[in-house]
Design goal:
This protein has helices at about 1-5, 10-35, 45-50, 60-85. By secondary structure, it is mainly α. The two termini are about 25 Å apart. The model has no long low-confidence stretch (mean pLDDT about 75).
Length: about 100
């Protein structure tokens, strides 16, 4: 698999990363759906604490609050891309895995 993830051809890298991401997503979804009780992770992450319990007064405030929370949660991945490199596997390949 490393041969495909580190290929020089961008399409091969894209398809292989998409395949790995989809497989991991389906495995996580099946484990979460069948093995964990409902509400198991609710309120246990920093993003949930930042979001709060109530909605903002206006749509614009709510939009910007969600945008800031998402940027804060994405910051470690961005920092990892700039700091770490592992041979030919670049960390910016993690962006599609995060849904960007």
């Amino acid at each position: 698999m490393h041969k495909y993830l580190a290929s020089d051809n961008a399409w091969i890298r894209f398809i292989s990363l998409l395949s790995v991401t989809l497989i991991l997503f389906v495995i996580a979804w099946v484990i979460g759906f069948y093995l964990l009780p409902e509400g198991f992770l609710r309120g246990k992450f920093a993003g949930a604490a930042l979001a709060g319990e109530t909605a903002a007064e206006s749509l614009t405030k709510e939009f910007f609050r969600i945008a800031v929370i998402n940027l804060v949660m994405l910051a470690p991945i961005l920092a990892g891309n700039w700091v770490f490199k592992h041979k030919r596997f670049r960390w910016d390949m993690l962006y599609p895995s995060c849904g960007l």
